[in-house]
UniProtKB/TrEMBL annotation:
One of its GO terms (molecular function) is oxidoreductase activity. Keywords: Iron, Metal-binding, Oxidoreductase. Belongs to the iron/ascorbate-dependent oxidoreductase family. This is Fe2OG dioxygenase domain-containing protein. Transmembrane segments: none annotated. InterPro entries: BesD/HalB-like, Oxoglu/Fe-dep_dioxygenase_dom. It comes from Paraburkholderia bryophila. Residues 130-232 form the Fe2OG dioxygenase domain. Pfam families: HalD (PF23169).
Amino acid sequence: MSTQANDDVIAPVSAERLPVSAAAPNADRAVSGRTRTFDNPRLRKDFADQGAFLYLEDFLAPEVTAQLVHSARSLLDEVNRNYLPGHKQGGSVSRHTIDRLAPFVAELYRSKELIGWLEQLSGDKLQLSPADDPHAYALYYYTRPGDHIGWHYDTSYYDGRRYTLLLGVIDESSCRLDYELHTRNADVPDQPGSVQIPPGGLVFFDGDKLRHRITPAGANEMRVSLTFEYVTDPNMRPWRRFISNMKDAIAYFGFRQVFRQMTARGKDRS
Ligand SMILES: [Fe+2]
């Protein structure tokens, strides 16, 4: 076999060049194809027993995972890097960028099948996050040594509860999700845990109940996760809105992304 022929066989195909988006799966169909195979009463019990937390190693349909991997790689140039000494270092792509460049992610976020299944798990009626919340759906990138996020809760600034759905997209890393269950429940001892979330894996939790962190990435590692945020009441008091926006601008997405939507709305009204 000539060198040329061999090169033809082994030449890697860049994910960016794959025509995945032309064949984006139907989100509802892909989700229901998976969730109808689960023992859902059991999962609902697990979620409740673990203090509003569930981890599933294998959740997404393979074609959905492939589409998300494609999107994550194609959005690398759009990543907003941020660094909060002692707490957080990493990159993120907000919903506003996803809306422009990766509409399948938004379709998956709005999937009635997905939301219905999460409602079964949580026992709550879930709503989409408001249009100006950059966390509604966002990609988080751990691509440089030391990228991590320290211990925190996904605090709800809304009047109701805030649920986080975390989906594994790319994991070529040693990063782990460390967590502690029951920290807000005085009647149950704290229970620590740790998972490495493979592509297609799922973590679902009540943001105010799960203390968690992502451990630092090493050299030449890459991890990308996708998170969806659902709420039980999308109203937010103005001073909480201010705190939430400042936090998002500094810690996650940058001022341009966070305040762009507000500015646009302001212009609409004038
Ligand atoms: Fe978090």
